Amino acid sequence: MLLQVQDVTMRFGGLTAVDRVTFAAAAGQITALIGPNGAGKTTLFNCITGFYRPSGGAILLHPPGAETGAAPVALHRLAGHRIARAGVARTFQNIRLFPGMTALENLLVAQHNALMATTGWGIGAVLGLSRYPAAERAAVEKAKQWLQATQLLDRADDPAGALPYGAQRRLEIARAMCTSPDGPALLCLDEPAAGLNPRESEELAKLLLQIRAGGTSILLIEHDMGVVMRISDRVVVLDHGQRIADGPPAEVRADPRVIAAYLGEEEVE
Ligand SMILES: Nc1ncnc2c1ncn2[C@@H]1O[C@H](COP(=O)(O)OP(=O)(O)OP(=O)(O)O)[C@@H](O)[C@H]1O
Ligand SMILES: [Mg+2]
């Protein structure tokens, strides 16, 4: 088990956006988090990634490779940047790139923390120590590797803001993949297929399978049921802040509670 969400509640004043939600995301799997608009999906993501501190409950990360019996990391108590360092990366429902920087530069900035740690938080760079150019070269290499994986290598020097929408979505994923030195243990994606055409959605699905094959587990919020049903190992359904289903895609798709939650919203197909 990689991530455990236990009884997590998030309240905004009188509104309970997430209501005692429990589920687990297994290592090496794609776990989808679906539900109608306003179900609490993004709010739960914001709790997992440290943007919000949950009003109640626990969020535990069991880093892969840690010796058995090692204490899990209590994400619900950590600040956002420490959660990132623990190996949790994310993208946003609304694209957040540096539009005036090139695609390549966006991926270098994403690696900044890792790079600065290697160089003694800038001192090495100032003194021109030999480790720095090596770290910088490695950062450029990693950026290029992810530009390639997201089919953006030919756009490396274009400003991110000038890229077509689908390309910006892919760059966001590349950026998230660059935030941890060895690749994140868990990649959290908030509606990565939103606004993509069918061909782009198909490519996105392939990219996510490729990321999973590379050893990064994925937590996926997505409204595109074609993508969800095709690539997810497990599907968790939220409605009005509560978990109403949790299981393999085929089972969840046939669940009457899930169908009822989506009625008048969109088809579960
Ligand atoms: N910062 C906030 N302050 C107050 N209420 C909020 C806040 N963030 C979210 N909410 C409310 O919490 C509920 C859940 O919102 P959330 O954005 O998590 O839904 P969602 O499942 O991501 O929906 P969508 O599919 O539309 O993105 C909504 O009623 C929303 O208005
Ligand atoms: Mg949302």
From TrEMBL:
Per the record, a Pfam family? ABC_tran
Q: Which domain of life is it from?
A: Bacteria
Instruction: State one molecular function term (GO).
Output: ATP binding
Q: Where is the ABC transporter domain?
A: 3-265
Protein name as catalogued: ABC transporter ATP-binding protein
Alphabetic keyword roster: Amino-acid transport, ATP-binding, Nucleotide-binding, Transport
Q: Which residues span the membrane? A: none
Q: Which PANTHER family match?
A: CONSERVED COMPONENT OF ABC TRANSPORTER FOR NATURAL AMINO ACIDS-RELATED, HIGH-AFFINITY BRANCHED-CHAIN AMINO ACID TRANSPORT ATP-BINDING PROTEIN LIVG
